[in-house]
Amino acid sequence: MSSVRSTIAVTVCAAIALVSCSTDGRTMQEPTPSQVAAISPGTTLTPQDDASIEQSAPLTLTAPWVNGAALDPRYSCDGEAFSPSLAWSAAPPETKAFGLVLTDRDRPEYIHWVITNIDPTVTTILENTNPTGAYVAENGEQKRDYAAPCPPSGSTHSYNITLYALSELIDTQKYSSASSITEQMKAVVLEVGTNDFTYSR
Q1: Under CATH, which architecture does the 58-200 domain have?
Q2: pLDDT tens digits, residue range 34-51?
């Protein structure tokens, strides 16, 4: 019984001490402007943080059509069969070159357009041209050029253009075919930008 009383007494004393500390008659003062200014919010971004956010923006690829839309016939076998103009932006700063691949999802074995070692300062390709100094692999027609989409009559095919930002140049002496170049670009890719379209005949 005496131990219980001792415990109660200790508890009461502790409570009294706590109350006396929190109600000692003193009042809290509002912080001065200088004290507030000295506190740095934890979420403040430094200039380096801002730069890293800009650099992390996704690689974008722009074509003459809205992503996912139908191809203008001028870029197909039913029109002029011109390669489209393309533009891109926001590549990682360590990019050493760009690569480009046009694929028919419904006929992936056919090569439409494969380019590598595009100068890293280049951000556009003009209509019906290949980038100066870049390596263009043979397409499905055994030409080092663009092969216009040309699905069978009465069908619709889905296509994809992929732009690769590469961490190094591709050795085109060692990897010269369109398929080997594509695989090698995938092995050294930093970031990709894509654009999809369809074409019906």
Answers
A1: Alpha-Beta Complex (3.90)
A2: 444 444 444 343 444 444
